[in-house]
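WARN no homologs supplied; continuing
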Amino acid sequence: MTLKEYRTANKLTVRKLTDELKTVDSRFTMAMVSNMENGVVEPPEGVKAWLAGKQIAMNEDPLTEEEDIVIRCLTSHHKDNPIERGDLKFWTGLTDRVMRKAIEGLRNRGYWILNDGYGYYITFNKDDLEPWINKERARARSINRTVQAMLSRVSGQTEMGKD
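OK structure emitted
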């Protein structure tokens, strides 16, 4: 069982798991728990023993180098201090395409990386997440409508260049 599986199986929030881990190491923060769950950081030795005692394995799917670079750049950015796409590209040294793929990969791992139109940031607040989810769902519906409309016309299309 992974740390995330342990947390969800025991119906623990990241905050509650953080409180539990603080009994082992008082320095723990919610960001550290999230980073441990996603394989960004290795737990300290005392926590490794605690994890082993509960038969919890660490995430065996480490971040790619690009994901690691992006997450390190984003860790100091929050809703009130987002980083613009061009600045993130500059500071990571990645191409735009590679950077966006890394962000997608991180989001697929469960990181709450948002872009509210002002820039990218990481949030732990569900209230920040909901508008982003609604926007992405609306975007998905729009794309699906376009695809369906195009597919409905496939049989009636003429070939390009033929009269």
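Helices lie at 3-9, 14-22, 30-37, 45-53, 65-74, 85-92, 96-108, 126-152.
OK
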